From TrEMBL:
It comes from the Bacteria. GO terms for molecular function: oxidoreductase activity, acting on the aldehyde or oxo group of donors, NAD or NADP as acceptor. This is Ketoglutarate semialdehyde dehydrogenase. Keywords: Oxidoreductase. NCBIfam families: AlphKGSA_gudD. The keyword Repressor does not apply. It holds the Pfam family Aldedh.
Length: 488
C-alpha cells in the first residue's frame, strides 16, 4: 500500500512569528528531478504581507543597532550552530528542491555555517579609523552606521549560501532584514530562517516574505522604508531593481550574470585544464554565475584538449542528485530547462557544430525530471548567441586561438566580467592575464567557479553594480561612513 505523507505548507516569517499570507494563496515547490514530487507549499504573498514585514523590521532596527556588534555576533554564532546541526536535512531539502547533488548541497550548507561564523566575528572588529586633524586640539575619526532596513532578493542557485552571505553582514553591522527568496527554493529558505528564529533573534530583526518576483521583489525595490536592497539574479531583473532603488535614493547592490572564459595555453597541464573546465562549466548543471561557458584553447593543443574533454564528459553520470553516483543533476526548473534547450537550438541554427550532447534526457526516471545532457559546441563564431548570452546551463563552447594575447582579447569581448581563469605554467602568461582580463574574480590553474567567503566577490562591467560582497568588503555596502570631528 502506498504511504501517503502530508505535504507541509511553509509560512512567511514576520516579526518573530510564522504566518500565512493574507491572500491565503500558496504555490507548490516541486522537485526538478521528479515533477510529481511536491517538496512543500509556500505562500504567494501580497504587498500587505511585505508591508507588515518591512514595518516590523523598521520597528526593530533601532534597538538592534543599540546592541554591541559583539552581542549581535553572538546571535549569528547561535544560528551557525543550528544550521550545522541541521545540515543533513537542509542539504537534502536543497537537493530535492533545486536539483544539485547532495554532496554539493552539503558543501553549500557548510559554507553557510562558515559565513555566519565569519560575520559573527566581524561584530568584534574595528569599524573606523582615527585620522590626523589639522587642529591639534581635535580628534577626527570615522565610524560606521547601518543603512536601516535591508531587502534581500535572492536566487535559487545557491539557496543557502547567497541569502546568508547577504543577511549575515547586514545583521552584524546593525541592519534588520526582509528576505524574499526565489520561489523555486523557498522551502530551503524557510528551513534556514528556522535557524535564525531558534537562535533567538529579537522580533522583527529577521523577516522572510515568499512570493513572486514581480510583486514581492519589486515591492522591496520600491518600498520607501527599505533603505538598502541587495540582489542576485538575472541582469534584466537586476537593472530593474537598481533603477527602482536609485529613483527613491536607496542604496543597492546587484550581482548578476557572467559569460566566464577559461583559457588553455599550449603549455597547460591538459588533464588539470579538462577537470577545471568540466567542474567549472558543468557542476550544478552550469547554474552558477561563475560557471565556465567559453573555452579558448591555443591551437597547438586544441585537438588533444578536445579529445580529453569529450572522454571525460562521457563518464559523467546524470541523475537524481540524491543518488550518491550522480555527478550532474537536473536543471532547477522546467523554465530553466526550456531556456537551456532553446539556447542549444539557437546554437545549431546559427551554425555552431554540436560535438556532444544537446538533448533533453528522457530515459527511465529521467523523463519525469528537467534533465539535459552536458553539451559542447565548436566552430562557434563569437557573435553567435551561445557565445554572448548567459545560458545558465551545462553548455560549453570551444574556440581555438593563435596566442594568449588573442585569447585575452576575445575573452574580454563580452558585456560581462565576473570570473575568468587560465591554465598555463608560463609566468608571463599569468601576469598578462591577471593584468588584462576584465573580471572581478581571476583564477590561475583553477576553475572559474568557486568563491571563498572571506574574500571580496563581484564583477566588472555588466556583471555587477561594481560593489563587492563577502569578506570585509561587505561592510562597504551594509554601512555608511560618518566622519567625526570632536573638540573639547
Ligand atoms: N547571477 C546569478 O547567480 C543568477 C542568474 N540568473 C540568471 O537569470 C535567469 C533567469 O532566472 P530567474 O530565476 O528567472 O532569475 P530572476 O532574476 O528572475 O530571479 C532572481 C530573484 O529576483 C526575483 N525577481 C524576479 N522578478 C523580479 C522583479 N521584477 N523585481 C524584483 N525581484 C524580482 C526572483 O523572484 C528571485 O528571487 C537564469 O537563466 C540566469 O541566466 C538566475 C539566478 C541566479
Ligand atoms: O561560484 C560560486 O561559488 C558562487 C557563484 C555565485 O555566486 C552564483 O552563482 O550566484
Amino acid at each position: 500500500m502506498a504511504v501517503q505523507t502530508e505535504i507541509k505548507t511553509y509560512l512567511n516569517y514576520i516579526d518573530g512569528s510564522w504566518v500565512g499570507s493574507v491572500s491565503k494563496n500558496v504555490e507548490p515547490s516541486i522537485n526538478p528531478a521528479n515533477r510529481n514530487d511536491i517538496v512543500g507549499y509556500v505562500p504567494r504573498s501580497t504587498l500587505e504581507d511585505l508591508n507588515a514585514a518591512v514595518a516590523a523590521a523598521k520597528q526593530a532596527q533601532k534597538s538592534w543597532w543599540k546592541r554591541s556588534g559583539i552581542e549581535r555576533g553572538e546571535y549569528l554564532y547561535k544560528a551557525a550552530l543550528l544550521l550545522e546541526q541541521r545540515l543533513e536535512d537542509i542539504a537534502e531539502t536543497m537537493t530535492r528542491e533545486m536539483g544539485k547533488t547532495l554532496a554539493e548541497a552539503k558543501a553549500e550548507t557548510m559554507r553557510g555555517v562558515h559565513i555566519l561564523r565569519y560575520y559573527a566575528g566581524e561584530g568584534a572588529r574595528k569599524i573606523g579609523d582615527v585620522i590626523p586633524s589639522s587642529d591639534s586640539g581635535g580628534l577626527m575619526f570615522t565610524t560606521r552606521v547601518p543603512l536601516g532596513v535591508v531587502g534581500v532578493i535572492s536566487p535559487w542557485n545557491f539557496p543557502v549560501a547567497i541569502p546568508i552571505w547577504k543577511m549575515a553582514p547586514a545583521l552584524v553591522y546593525g541592519n534588520t532584514v526582509v528576505l524574499k527568496p526565489a520561489s523555486e527554493t523557498a522551502v530551503t529558505a524557510a528551513k534556514v530562517i528556522e535557524c535564525f528564529h531558534e537562535a533567538g533573534f529579537p522580533k522583527g530583526v529577521v523577516n522572510m516574505v515568499c512570493g513572486s518576483g514581480s510583486v514581492i521583489g519589486q515591492g522591496i525595490a520600491n518600498h520607501p522604508d527599505v533603505d538598502g536592497v541587495t540582489f542576485t539574479g538575472s541582469n534584466t531583473v537586476g537593472k530593474q531593481v537598481g533603477r527602482a532603488a536609485f529613483e527613491r535614493g536607496a542604496k543597492y547592490q546587484l550581482e548578476m550574470g557572467g559569460k566566464n572564459p577559461v583559457i588553455v595555453a599550449k603549455d597547460a597541464d591538459l588533464d588539470l585544464a579538462v577537470e577545471g573546465t568540466i567542474s567549472g562549466g558543468l557542476r550544478s548543471t552550469g547554474q552558477k554565475c561563475t560557471a565556465t561557458s567559453r573555452v579558448f584553447i591555443e591551437r597547438e593543443v586544441y585537438e588533444p584538449f578536445k579529445e580529453k574533454l569529450l572522454e571525460r564528459v562521457k563518464q559523467l553520470k546524470i541523475g537524481n542528485g540524491m543518488d550518491a553516483e550522480t555527478w550532474m543533476g537536473p536543471c532547477a526548473s522546467e523554465s530553466q530547462l526550456n531556456t537551456v534547450l532553446s539556447y542549444i537550438e539557437k546554437g545549431k541554427a546559427e551554425g555552431a557544430k554540436l560535438i556532444y550532447g544537446g538533448n533533453r534526457c528522457t530515459e527511465g526516471e529521467l523523463a519525469n525530471g528537467f534533465y539535459v545532457e552536458p553539451t559542447i559546441f565548436e566552430e562557434v563564431d563569437l557573435q553567435m548567441t551561445i557565445a554572448r548570452e548567459e545560458i545558465f546551463g551545462p553548455v560549453l563552447v570551444l574556440i581555438p586561438v593563435d596566442s594568449i594575447e588573442e585569447a585575452i582579447e576575445l575573452a574580454n569581448d563580452t558585456e560581462y566580467g565576473l570570473s575568468a581563469s587560465i591554465y598555463t605554467k608560463n609566468i608571463g602568461n599569468i601576469l598578462d592575464f591577471i593584468k588584462d582580463i576584465e573580471a572581478g574574480l581571476v583564477k590561475v590553474n583553477a576553475e572559474t567557479a568557486g568563491v571563498e567567503y572571506q574574500a571580496p566577490f563581484g564583477g566588472m562591467k555588466q556583471s555587477s553594480s561594481h560593489s563587492r560582497e563577502q569578506g570585509q568588503a561587505a561592510i562597504e555596502f551594509f554601512t555608511t561612513i560618518k566622519t567625526v570631528f570632536v573638540k573639547a
